[in-house]
Amino acid sequence: MKASLVTLIVMIGLLTMGFTSKAKAEIDMSEPPFWMPSYEEFNDLQPAQKDFYLEKFMPLAAKVPGLEKISKEKMKDATEWFQTWNSVRRKLYEACQDSSMNATCEEIADVRIDALNMFANQKQENRLADREAAKEKEKKKKK
Question: Please, what is the end-to-end C-alpha distance for the chain in angstroms?
Answer without folding.
Answer: 92
